[in-house]
């Protein structure tokens, strides 16, 4: 469907809606499956003692404990907590980034540059979640790479969108 102008208003941002939504659905499904597997209806942590567990015969998951690595950083390997944080983090950054992309595109941003920016953003979010948060102790190399790349893309889109919007 096109606008009254005879062409789509947001072809680049619109095209990227599919991979971003698809990955969001994947993250949501992973959280749901973790909840079912760990028998946790609400919250983001697996109960650590059998008294708070739905079954008095179930044992706490030792992989869910808080750990401190060699650098003294406290973290967790709780699979539900990690899955919810990966999901929440995606939900915190991507909507604003897509809004910035739409503002930039509506104000005449170069489609090739916009495609490159959204491609970097998508790869950044996958790196952050899969090779960062979901890595051992949530400290994978993808976490800082994904975070800083996301911030760079968002800052660039905000600046570029404002520049174009002001007609400079």
Please provide a written account of the structure.
The chain has 168 residues and is mainly alpha-helical. Helix content is 61%, strand content 4%. The chain is built from four helices and two strands; from the N terminus they run αββααα. A two-stranded antiparallel ribbon has the order 1-2. The longest helix has 28 residues, at 11-38. The protein is elongated. The protein starts with 10 loop residues before the first helix and ends with a helix.
User: Could you estimate the helical fraction of the residues in percent?
Assistant: 55-70%
Radius of gyration: 20 Å
Distance between the termini: 31 Å
Residue-averaged pLDDT, rounded? 88
Order of helices and strands: HEEHHH
Query: What portion of residues belong to β-strands?
Result: under 5%
Name the overall outline: elongated
Number of helices: 4
Sheet with the most strands: spatial strand order: 1-2
Structural class: mainly alpha
Low-confidence stretches: 50-63
Number of strands: 2
What oligomeric assembly is this protein in? single chain
Biggest sheet details? 2 strands, antiparallel
Secondary-structure blueprint:
Elements: H1 11-38, E1 66-68, E2 74-76, H2 79-106, H3 111-133, H4 142-165
Antiparallel strand pairs: 1-2
Helix pairs in contact: 1-2, 1-3, 2-3, 2-4, 3-4
């Amino acid at each position: 469907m096109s606008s009254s102008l005879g062409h789509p208003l947001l072809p680049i941002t619109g095209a990227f809606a599919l991979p971003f939504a698809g990955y969001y659905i994947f993250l949501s499904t992973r959280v749901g499956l973790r909840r079912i597997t760990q028998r946790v209806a609400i919250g983001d942590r697996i109960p650590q003692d059998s008294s708070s567990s739905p079954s008095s015969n179930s044992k706490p998951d030792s992989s869910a404990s808080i750990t401190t690595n060699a650098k003294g950083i406290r973290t967790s390997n709780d699979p539900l907590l990690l899955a919810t944080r990966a999901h929440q983090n995606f939900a915190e950054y991507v909507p604003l980034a897509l809004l910035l992309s739409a503002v930039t595109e509506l104000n005449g941003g170069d489609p090739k540059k916009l495609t490159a920016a959204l491609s970097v953003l998508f790869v950044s979010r996958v790196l952050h979640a899969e090779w960062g948060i979901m890595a051992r102790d949530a400290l994978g190399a993808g976490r800082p790479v994904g975070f800083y790349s996301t911030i760079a893309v968002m800052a660039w889109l905000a600046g570029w969108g404002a520049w174009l919007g002001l007609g400079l």
